[in-house]
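Example 3.2
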Amino acid sequence: MTRTAEILLGEILEAIQLIDEYTRGVTFDEFAANLEKQDAVLVSRS
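Structure, written as tokens:
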């Protein structure tokens, strides 16, 4: 089963929205020190 460009773009947009939620208001240093946030962002990208 192949995914269409529309489906892929939808999944990319959803991942971007989740990453934004996970990192909103978080400084780089806070993000770097928080393995849970890092993991959540990495999972959103896969």
